[in-house]
Amino acid sequence: LSRDTEDNLQRSQNGAAPVAPRNWSNGKRRFWRFIRAQTNRLVILTGIVVFTVIYFWNSMFVTIQSGEVGVMFRRFAGGTVTDKLLFEGIRFVPPWDKLYVYNARLQEFHHSVTVLSVEGVAIKLDVSVRWRPVMELIGLLHQRIGPDFEEKVVKPEVDAALRRTIGAHSVNDIYMKASDVGQRVLDESLEKTYRNYVQIDEVLVRSVELPPALQERITAKLMKRESILIAEAEKDRLAIEAGGVKAYNKILQESLKPEILQWQAIQATKALANSANAKTVVIGRNSDGLPIILPK
Questions:
Q1: Is 215 helix (H, G, I), strand (E, B) or coil?
Q2: For the whole model, what pTM was predicted?
Q3: Angle, helices 178-195/155-167, rounded to nearest 10 degrees
Q4: What average pLDDT does this structure show over 2-16?
Q5: End-to-end Cα, the chain, rounded Å
Q6: Any idea which of 79-83, 120-124, 291-295 has the lowest mean pLDDT?
Q7: Which residues of 173-182 are buried (b: 16+ CB within 10 A; e: fewer)?
């Protein structure tokens, strides 16, 4: 080993820092001294960087799942980016910025609400609403409404449309035409929610709950109407059946001529003559022109 190497090994064994070789130029020696002076600082800086990356890893590397989109908030570059969305995949987000992830798929929520009909009767409705954020407007949705837009836009607008629609109809119309009520609610709420960057695809009325006394009266009325419909249907069936029997008898009467009856009598007499049963057949003519058959 060279003398410089032996000196450095000895210094390291003694716990001292190594020195530059004697044959180095002054420039190399100055650079060596600078590195030695900055070693502790570089170690501390490296530790800080590693700690920062580990601590902010989840917020710096965000995964956007299938069916989701991201809206970037840039703290030093204009705030919310409304004209450019981030789609599926891993996205790098600087620690001073923030990425908001939205579900862009068709979503559904169930909602119960009590409203008054035009007669002032309290009706409890259980509805199912299917909706989705308007894809190209999610940036504006985040900027102007926020992530809790379902509570701020969708539910209030559906509630308001339900109250307006139910308040303009009678209990009978609501109970008998629940699907039409859902369509009217959809038509009323669609435009207003779209102005707030949300599209409602369908409103389904799952159940209509009336006060018990009113429910019993409506049920009795429906049963009576059903009985009347059944009676009318049976009446029509019997009328059609009677018309068929009448037409059959008319055709049969027109076809039963004396010659045909006499031929049928002859066939019956021949069958009786060949039968093993005991009998007496008198061949002759009575008032109706048929044979007289007497038991033995």
A1: helix
A2: 0.56
A3: 140
A4: 56
A5: 151
A6: 291-295
A7: ebbeebeebb
Whose CA is closest to 258, among 286, 287, 289, 284? 289
Asked whether 92 and 60 are in contact (CB, 8 A), the reply is yes
CA angle centred on 175, ends 173 and 179, rounded to 5°: 85
* Calpha distance 74→209 (Å, rounded): 50
In angstroms, the CA 266 to CA 259 distance is: 11
What residue type is 94 in one-letter code? P
Q: Among residues of the chain, what percentage have pLDDT more than 70? A: 73
Q: How confident is the model at residue 105 (pLDDT cuts 50, 70, 90)?
A: very high
Looking at residue 1, what is its pLDDT?
47
pLDDT in tens, 252-286: 666 666 666 666 667 777 776 676 665 555 555 55
Mean pLDDT of 64-77: 93
- How far from 183 is each of 109, 167, 180, 229, 261, CA to CA, in Å? 17, 15, 5, 29, 69
Contact between residue 85 and residue 106 where contact means Cβ atoms under 8 Å apart: no
CB 174, CB 104: distance < 8 Å: no
Q: How many residues does the chain have?
A: 296
